Amino acid sequence: MKVLELILKYDDLKLEGETIDGTLPQSFCQEALGEIVGSSGYWLDQGVQLSGNVYRTPSGEVIVDGRLVGHADFECVSCGQRRRLPIQVREDVIIVPKNHSAASEEDIEGEGDLNISPDLYMFEGQDIDLSEIFREVLILNMPTHPRCDLLSETCGPSLAEKGNDKLPETSGIDPRWAPLLAMHDQLKSMNANEDSASDDSASDDSASDN
């Protein structure tokens, strides 16, 4: 599905940057999330807003600081209770022409105001379709087995306790997305471990000073 306000022309992008503002349609997002968890995962009653800024660097890369905002309903995989999950995702992505010489994050590190590790994407021709890129961002940032504790809520009686032997169909992850989802979870775990190690080091330094 093409979203005209989210299709950028490469030659029209400016060094000083410009804002982006558009909506990923409800049907487009629903189809994307359905690919993660099958037919019983998330429901959206409206589209997801995409806003942010886009820059073209002197060396030809495109940097997008994007924000996704919306909400999705889900049924807890433990108790089956229906909940509403806010969608609030910030993602910095780097987009390069397919034949660009700088095709690694290391080559373009430090370009733009990036406060998290960016993802790298490539495109061909003149059109850059942000809806396709941020569709993937949305998929990678949604929990694959949503539970009440995502919202700091307490689960009700489990489905087994209710005598419901049919669990929600949340295990049917589309195999095309499984490797990306696994990599995303691994990166999140590595970042969490690094943050924990940094906190422990800071605590040790403080203790030695005392």
Quick structural gist:
The chain has 210 residues and is an alpha+beta fold. It is built from 3 helices and 8 strands. The chain has helices at 26-37, 130-141, 178-209, and strands at 7-9, 18-24, 42-43, 48-56, 62-75, 82-97, 119-123, 127-129.
Walk me through what this model shows.
The protein is of the alpha+beta class and 210 residues long. The protein folds into two domains: 4-171, no CATH class; 175-210. It has helices at residues 26-37, 130-141, 178-209; strands at residues 7-9, 18-24, 42-43, 48-56, 62-75, 82-97, 119-123, 127-129. The strands form two sheets. Strands 2, 3, 4, 5, 6 and 7 form a six-stranded mixed sheet that branches. The protein has a two-stranded antiparallel sheet with strand order 1-8. Helix 1 packs across helix 2 (130-141). The protein is flat. Residues 102-117 and 165-172 have low confidence and may be disordered.
